[in-house]
């Protein structure tokens, strides 16, 4: 895949509709999201952008300069119906890769990662039972944190493939250093707090994971 084919003249419709939102993190936290799910959700501002084609994307992207996003603020591009909140029903079992890049190249990396999302390049490398949720950019004092969210953190194929796809599709001068990329399940963030109505989902998932691990260990004996 060559990202240069996604020019402003590209007329093909996107497979999914996309929308953008912005949010703000608390100063004392290193995480992109710090309040509990409901509180953070209330802080999100929907930008009213509906992206259904590459042409729509370029209109949005050209009118949303990254250098106007303030420190500790974030901007997200997510599939319609998904929210950039760890505790959202569609995200609660998922995770994300985060790439720390210098501010000088952050806008270019961000544009390319967004195109990988709406062009379905990221979705195509995921496990068949997994789904891309969206991508985000958070501004820090001397860096941009660019994240790729997917729905099922238990799918190792997806976890490995997201990293490989991003690194393969970025030119060498834009690739983050190996120690500036990390993966984390949403549930492992310090600020994660499962809504009571979804705790049963997590409990069931944990039991299934424990059983799978036990079965694997037994098979290796």
UniProtKB/TrEMBL annotation:
Entry's family note = Belongs to the eukaryotic initiation factor 4E family.
Q: What is the lineage of its organism?
A: Eukaryota, Fungi, Dikarya, Ascomycota, Pezizomycotina
Span list, region Disordered: 178-221
Q: Which GO terms describe its molecular function?
A: RNA 7-methylguanosine cap binding; translation initiation factor activity
Identify the Pfam families for this entry. Answer: IF4E
Instruction: List GO terms (cellular component aspect).
Output: eukaryotic translation initiation factor 4F complex
Swiss-Prot/TrEMBL keywords? Initiation factor, Protein biosynthesis, RNA-binding, Translation regulation
Source organism: Verticillium longisporum (Verticillium dahliae var. longisporum)
What's the protein name? Uncharacterized protein
């Amino acid at each position: 895949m060559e990202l240069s084919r996604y020019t402003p003249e590209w007329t093909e419709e996107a497979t999914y509709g996309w929308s953008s939102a912005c949010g703000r993190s608390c100063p004392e936290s290193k995480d992109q999201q710090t309040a509990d799910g409901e509180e953070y959700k209330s802080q999100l501002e929907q930008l009213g952008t509906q992206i259904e084609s590459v042409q729509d994307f370029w209109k949005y992207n050209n009118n949303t300069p990254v250098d106007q996003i303030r420190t500790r603020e974030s901007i997200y591009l997510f599939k319609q119906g998904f929210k950039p909140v760890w505790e959202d029903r569609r995200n609660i079992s998922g995770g994300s890769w985060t790439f720390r890049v210098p501010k000088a190249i952050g806008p270019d990396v961000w544009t390319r990662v967004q195109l990988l999302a709406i062009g379905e390049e990221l979705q195509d490398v995921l496990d068949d039972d997994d789904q891309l949720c969206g991508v985000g950019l958070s501004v820090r004092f001397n860096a941009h944190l660019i994240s790729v969210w997917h729905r099922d953190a238990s799918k190792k194929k997806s976890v490995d493939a997201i990293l490989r796809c991003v690194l393969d599709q970025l030119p060498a001068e834009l690739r983050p250093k190996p120690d500036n990329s990390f993966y984390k399940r949403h549930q492992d963030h310090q600020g994660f707090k499962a809504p009571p109505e979804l705790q049963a989902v997590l409990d069931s998932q944990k039991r299934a994971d424990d059983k799978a691990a036990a079965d694997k260990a037994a098979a290796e004996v």
